[in-house]
Every structure is written in C-alpha cells, then in structure tokens.
Write a structure and sequence with these properties.
Number of helices: 13
Structural class: mainly alpha
Helix content: 55-70%
Strand order of the largest sheet: 1-2-3
Number of domains: 1
Largest sheet: 3 strands, antiparallel
Distance between the termini: 6 Å
Order of helices and strands: HHHHEEEHHHHHHHHH
C-alpha cells in the first residue's frame, strides 16, 4: 500500500511504534468486519425488537454501536501489549473468568436451559467468552515451558487448565464452547510439536467425551435428532434461515428490505448471517467468508514464521479459534450441523462476544507484531516496508 500514514517513521511514541509494527492489513479487515456487524444490526434490530416487544426499534443497533466502539478500543489497546503483557493479562483474565464461572450456578441467569450469564445493569456478561483466548495463551505458554526441559511439567499443567475450563463449561452446560476449545487446544497441542500418538489419543478421548453428551444432556440429544431427522421435528429456525438466504439471490433485496428476517428466531444474534444474506445477497455472503478466511490464513502464515515457540503456538491457536467459531456459526446457518448458539465474530449482536473477540484478535496482533528477533531471518514480512 502506498498511502499517507498517520504517524511518521520517526515517531517513537507508543502509538507511533504500534502503528509501524502491527499488521495493518489485518487491522483493516477487522475494522471492516466490525463495520459490517453494525450495518447488519441496523437491519436486524427493528424485527428483533418487535419479536421481543421492545418499543425502540433500534434498541439492539444502538447497543451494537457501543459494543463495536468497545471492541475497536479493545483491539488497539491489547495489540499494543508486549509478549510479557499478553501472558500476564491472560493469566489474570483466566483466573477472573474461572472464578465467575464457578459462581454461575449460584448467581447466574438461566436461559434456554443453560446458566452461562451474569446480568447487571440491563447487560449480560458471559465469562466463558473471555476465558477462551486467555486459556489458549496459557496452554501455549505451558507447552513452550515444557519444551525447555527445565523440569516444568508444562504439558500436565496445560491439560489441567483445559480440563478445569471445559469441566465448568459442561456444568452450564455449553457443549458448543467445549467443542470450540477442544479443537483449538488440540491444534495448539499439535503445533507445539508433541508426538502424533498423543494428538491422536487426545482426539479419540475428545470424540468419546463429546459423543457421550448425546446421551447425558437432553438438549444435545434433541438438537442432534432434529438435525438427523428433520421430517420428525420442528425445524422452523433453520428452515426460516434457509428461506431468507435463498430470497436474497445474488445481490440481495437491499438494506432494510429483508422480509424473511421477521420469521427467523435469534436473527440478530446466532442468525445474523442469514439476515445479511437476504438483504445483501450471495456476493455479500462470499465476501464475508473471504474476510474470515483472510484473517485466519494470514494470521496462521505470520504465526508460523515467528521464531519463539510460545508466540507461534499462542498466535496460531487464537487465529484457529476465530476461524473455527466463524465456521460453526455459518455452518449452523447453512444447516450443515446441528443448531448451536454461537455468535459470528464481530457480526452477531452481543457485548460479551464482541468485546471478547476484540480481546482475542488484540492478543493475536500483539504476538505477531514486528519486533527484533520476532521472525525467522528469512521471513520477508520483517522487511521495513512490509506494512507500508
């Protein structure tokens, strides 16, 4: 890019240094995703407000704007941290999130058979959203410490952190987040260079454990049965989403002109993708997929070029987590997997999701910033003009 820059190269202020070391292409795509989320919220808010008997038609849109500003601030602020700051903040964030998750059965808000939120001042707070990126950084740290061979039981500690985290998730219960964290943990486990047999053992254990939820948790049993036998169950949610996507055609009905969104439950949260597909069409849907693909592919490419094992595994794990969450949400909208209440990063309405995703990509950007010795000597990204 050959554009004018907000800061000269001679600017050594914290903001100036950040600007010249952060991945500005990634930053731009994240900003675009946040902006798209705000646009879709204005399309979905009136219909959602009617369904929920809320007088202000733009109730959710106004809130989403506030969440979007908070997420943008979160991305910039967290991405300015150094590596030690990322590790330290992750430790305290994980501790705080786990403490709140322990308290959820006693003080949490129950909705749709799950206790995942704490409500205060008209807002809901979901601690597991913040626990996810913090856990990924901590397990990468432990894997890296274990590889040093200095007597630190890094792998054992990492598994302990993972087991405690998913144990508390299953108490809520939240199987979707458990699957998300398990896959990301497995990816970090593999990227840390552990023997393949261990990775296969972890995969087999995870599959067996998650399969057991079909028999142990009634809502999981119900959702899987609906997916496998749609002719014998009420599939209004996914059917309405499919009709909305088909109605959009190639270029959509136009902003605010969607009709089927009035019949899509949770249209402003889990099914925001379908709202966008109806109003902006297939072209928009493919663009959205391309933006998430860019974030994941570029992020993984940069992570694999990092020279420090901790930074490499932590950054890659965070990008995998973002991509995985996007895939799960869009797969539900396309009726490729059983329904799951999981937001589309930066697009779906929700303060906890929006701010936590800002935290996640802020940490990933902080770990992949250009620093002396951060990248391998042959890495072309380390050239002075890379982000120019």
């Amino acid at each position: 890019m050959t554009t004018a820059h907000a800061f000269p190269r001679s600017d050594r202020s914290p903001l100036g240094v950040w600007w010249w070391t952060v991945d500005r292409w990634m930053l731009g795509v994240v900003a675009l995703l946040i902006a798209i989320g705000v646009v879709i919220s204005f399309s979905a808010s009136p219909a959602a407000a009617v369904r929920m008997n809320i007088g202000d038609p733009f109730h959710f849109a106004v809130r989403q704007c506030l969440f979007a500003v908070g997420a943008a601030v979160m991305v910039v602020t967290v991405s300015m941290l150094d590596v030690k700051g990322v590790r330290r903040s992750s430790f305290f964030i994980w501790l705080a999130a786990i403490a709140i998750m322990i308290a959820l059965p006693f003080f949490g808000h129950n909705a749709k058979g799950a206790t995942r939120w704490i409500e205060f001042g008209g807002f809901s707070f979901q601690p597991s959203e913040y626990m996810k990126p913090a856990l990924m950084v901590l397990v990468a740290w432990m894997f890296a410490e274990g590889q040093k061979g200095q007597g630190v039981p890094g792998v054992s500690v990492a598994f302990g952190l993972y087991a405690l985290s998913i144990g508390l998730l299953l108490v809520q219960p939240d199987v979707g987040q458990t699957v998300l964290i398990t896959v990301a943990f497995g990816a970090a486990f593999w990227m840390a260079g552990v023997p393949l047999s261990w990775v296969m053992l972890l995969g087999a254990t995870a599959i067996a454990g998650l399969s057991s939820t079909y028999f142990l948790l009634p809502h999981v049993h119900s959702r899987v049965d609906k997916f496998l036998s749609p002719d014998k169950a009420d599939t209004h949610q996914v059917d309405a989403a499919a009709v909305a996507q088909a109605a959009g055609g190639l270029f959509g009905r136009g902003p605010g002109e969607g009709v089927m969104k009035r019949h899509v439950p949770d249209l402003h949260t889990d099914f925001a993708y379908s709202v966008g597909a109806e109003e902006f069409g297939l072209v928009f849907s493919l663009l959205l997929i391309a933006l998430f693909a860019f974030v994941v592919i570029r992020g993984l490419y940069r992570a694999m070029k990092l020279s420090d094992p901790f930074e490499q595994v932590a950054a890659a794990g965070l990008f995998v987590m973002v991509g995985e969450q996007a895939i799960i949400n869009m797969a539900v909208n396309l009726n490729l997997i059983p329904t799951k209440g999981m937001t589309l990063p930066f697009i779906s309405y929700g303060g906890s999701s929006m701010l936590a995703m800002g935290l996640t990509l802020g940490m990933a950007l902080a770990l992949t910033r250009r620093r002396p010795g951060a990248y391998t000597p042959t890495e072309g990204l380390a050239k002075a003009g890379e982000f120019a």
